[in-house]
Amino acid sequence: MEDGTIQDSDITASSTAWLLYRRWPWYARLNGDDAWLPSVSTGSWLQVDLKQQKTVSGVITQGYDSVLSDSWITRYQVRYLNTSGHWETILGGTGNVMTFSGNTDPNGQKTNLFDSPVVTQGIRLYPVEWNIQPFLRMEILGCVFIDKIASTTQATTVTSVPSTSRHSAAPTQSFSTFDQTEEPFPSETLTTVSMTPLDGEQGQQNGRAEALSLGAIVGIAVGMSVLLVISLVFLTVFRRKQRRPNDNGKRQSTPQAVEMGSSNAAGPTISDEGEYVDTLSSVVASRHPRTCNGG
After folding, report:
1. What is d(CA 55, CA 162) in angstroms, rounded to the nearest whole number?
2. Are 31 and 75 in contact (CB under 8 A)?
3. Is the alpha carbon torsion for 7, 207, 86, 117 positive or negative?
4. What string of DSSP letters covers the chain?
5. pTM of this prediction exceeds 0.70
6. Partners of 72 in the beta sheet?
7. Beta 87-89 vs 46-62: how paired, if at all?
8. Is-contact 28 136, C-beta < 8 A?
9. Rounded to the nearest 5°, which phi and psi values hold at 45?
10. Bridge partners for 53 per DSSP
């Protein structure tokens, strides 16, 4: 899981919590920056589809140090998909249901190996007890399944395929010649079982559609806000430009009015009035001449 060989779409869950943001099932990769968190704690599970029959020998679990609290799973159970398409719980050597001990801190890794490896196409981990919240990061230990090893009468050497996980690196094993009755795996032919679509897969698809819709709404809201701000700025500048010519016109017209009023209201000057009186006196004297005798 950690190296990305298992795709996000192959990691599903019974539910997904929304804590600050959606805690998707594919966040449950070992040493990842995030972790899976179920929305319903009781009966929750994380499922990994291996796509083909593989030999699984154990799991590694890890908690998560979130911003709100440090959380981890303290006890859990594991189920696997058998060749008949049913989920079976991992059992102990005496046939009892195995409840594995989990982590004791958020970042430490706890490895648990099964008493007997199982051949399966799918694995589910069920949290049973936890500290604060059932945050989970995990890895699956195992290797490619070989359904049958050919036996011959001559000495041969068969090399098992090493695990691709760095957590499950083990020394290469060599098997000497086996009799027909000595086979490391069951002799019956295993049929490939198709994984039944689960509610978790549908929830994952709905969650992605929800995230896309939310992103679109946020984008539209931001765009409208930007357009509104630009419109207000433009309107403010436009109004200021309209007010400046009117103010200048008013300021220029006032002195002109005062100047014109002063010229119109001044009236005749003293010198003009004196000339007018002298002229009128001369006209009157010419029409009515006076003599010294008074006659």
Report:
1. 11
2. no
3. positive
4. -TTS-S-GGGEEES---EESEE--GGG-BTT-SS-B--SS-TT--EEEEEEEEEEEEEEEEE-EE-SS-EEEEEEEEEEEE-TTS-EEE-B-TTSPBP-EE--SSSS-EEEEEEEEEEEEEEEEEEEEEEESS--BEEEEEEEE--S-----SS---EEPPPPSSGGG--PPPEE----TT--SS-SSPPPP-PPPP-HHHHHHHHHHHHHHHHHHHHHHHHHHHHHHHHHHHHHHHHHHHHHHHHHHHHHHHHHHHHHHHHHHSS---HHHHHHHHHHHHHHHHHHS---TT--
5. no
6. 131
7. unpaired
8. yes
9. -150, 155
10. none
List the chain pLDDT tens, one digit each, 295 residues: 999 999 999 999 999 999 889 999 999 999 999 999 999 878 999 999 999 999 999 999 999 998 888 999 999 999 999 989 999 999 998 999 999 999 999 999 999 999 999 999 999 999 999 999 999 999 999 988 776 554 443 444 433 334 444 343 333 333 333 333 333 334 333 344 444 444 555 555 556 656 556 666 777 877 788 888 888 888 888 877 776 655 555 554 444 443 444 444 444 444 444 554 455 555 455 555 554 444 4
Beta-bridged to residue 127, according to DSSP, are: 76
- The residues, any chain, with a CB within 8 Å of residue 60's CB and separated by 6 or more, are 30, 109, 110, 111, 112, 138, 139, 141, 167
